[in-house]
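Reading a protein record of the kind used here takes little practice once its layout is understood. The fold follows as a row of integers, each naming the local backbone shape at the matching residue. With these conventions in mind, the following record can be read line by line:

_____
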Amino acid sequence: MRSNYVQFNTPQFRILSDSQLEELHLATLQILERTGVAFECQEALDILANAGADVSNPDRVKIPSYLVEQAIRTAPRMITLYSREGEPAIVLNGTTGSHFGAQPDSVDIIDPYTRQRRSYYIADIADSARVIDALPNIEWSYLATGHVTIPGVIADKISLLQFILNSSKPVIAEMASVSSLREMIDLCSIVAGGEEQLRKKPFFGGSSEPVSPLVQGKDAMEKSLLCAEKGLPNVVYGMPMAGTTVPATFAGCLAIANAEVLSQLVVLQFKHPGAPVIGGSITSIMDMKTTIFSYGAPELTLMVGALAELYHYYEIPFFGTAGCTDAERIGAQMGAESMYQILISMLTGADLVHDIAVQYHARVMSPEALVLQDELIDMARVLMGGIEINDETLPLGLIERLGPKASYLAEAHTFKHFRKFWVPTVFDRSFVKKEGTKDCEQLVNEKTIRILETHRPKPLPESVLGEIRKLENTWLDRVGLKEYPKKP
């Protein structure tokens, strides 16, 4: 070991300086203390009042800075997500790198067999979950329950059930209501072997969204309070849109986004100290030509990256965004937007990164995009591996022995190290293009269909399956269904 020698294990990258992080933090405290946040949940108002906040006007609840900083100190620095079988799967602590997750349900799907866009069916959720389960760089899943082929009152629970049946990876879910969240916890408790086991080794977590600007809705707040009560991980994230719901400047957008998360964090930490909260925000712009909330905008990635650095400053796990695109289909736009987001997420160290393969303004998902972006994540990990410099990797003796005009092909050193080169599975590197040579899109399609037709996750025990099928039948009975609509 060399004395007084510094070696970077990963590339060094910063968006914000330490002084900028401090300035954003202080601006957030000022917003919370002087501007205030609207709270629509009476329990949250009672908690804040008991803690010392000014709740005389529920539309402008003023939270003193010392309460915010106390909540930050109380929030856990590390959160572990487990597999369905109770094995540690993901550790979120700001040092383990980025863990990418995908969404197996959506409004529409690009069918990998027909290559056509159509509505999402329940069988598609099962198929997408199996693809996620098979891909090594997609480590968890986020359920948005946007599919519309079954009634919305049970869509969230059915999505979760299908994912649990077809993947053992951790899952974070949106839910339609607090009562739905309770039923989802019941389902996951059956799988885990009881509610206490689920608390100890959570493979399931909830999510709730403040409404920009600076509104904590009743339903969202109650969901978060329930997750905190049950000791389950909970993602708190808003979706501020620069130029519409927040100022048209990056700093203004970031300060409000942060205030939305921290105002909820105060409630949760004063109600249940140590409640496992993962903070985040999907901060983007309104495209002034189309008025859309842009998922592929470079500004989204810049601001989310800055927030990742801010939450590392707080030592709170961060919920990032990458792999989403405004493009409808696989192509140049998807590749560019997705890789840009993946790289910045890794470089800023965002902990739990969602939206892999979310397409077309969050209305479309494609199993083929999952396969492609799994490859992009794997490719980006080469950058994050850095460059190790030591006597073995810098073989000056070998270089001197062989000298100029040498070939290293037959050397033992080459044989020892060449297997570390990254090898693509869906990129075409062929030099001689013969008839039938497959391009990237063909290779992606073939790999996707191969996974769909061959990958089967570890099944749940029959006793557990019997219990969750009973729950499933009660949900179907509730909306008058005997079976799920069949996909075309």
Observations:
- Residues 177 and 219 are 7 Å apart (CA to CA).
- The radius of gyration is 24 Å.
- The longest strand covers residues 138-143.
